[in-house]
Amino acid sequence: MDKFTVTPLQQLRVPLGGQDLELQQIDFAAGGISMLRVRIREGRRFTVFDLDPATAHAWGDAMCRWAQAQPGGKAG
Fold first, then answer.
1. CA 36, CA 24: separation in Å to the nearest integer?
2. Is residue 19 within 8 Å of 41, Cβ to Cβ?
């Protein structure tokens, strides 16, 4: 298995569902590849996504468009 370095980026808590979200940068030693790791914790259960930059960008854009379309969704 490749060796990698984990850099914490952001932690969030979903107020309604109580899930803990953690964003991490994963840098692989072999090949110099970086991924965005999204970890979602629900009680004892974890869901983990490792995203390439293009997928992370598309996902982030979709989330921003959705949030901006909601009442009070405009960030200042």
1. 6
2. yes
Is residue 66 within 8 A of residue 58, CB to CB? The reply is no
Per-residue pLDDT tens over the stretch 8-18: 999 999 999 89
| Neighbour order of strands in the sheet with 45-51 | 4-13, 20-28, 34-42, 45-51
What is d(CA 27, CA 40) in angstroms, rounded to the nearest whole number?
A: 20
**Which H or E run includes 65?**
helix 53-69
48: tokens are 């983990």
Residue 59 main-chain phi, psi, to 5 deg: -65, -45
* pLDDT digits 0-9 by tens, 26-71: 999 887 889 999 999 999 999 999 999 999 999 999 999 999 999 9
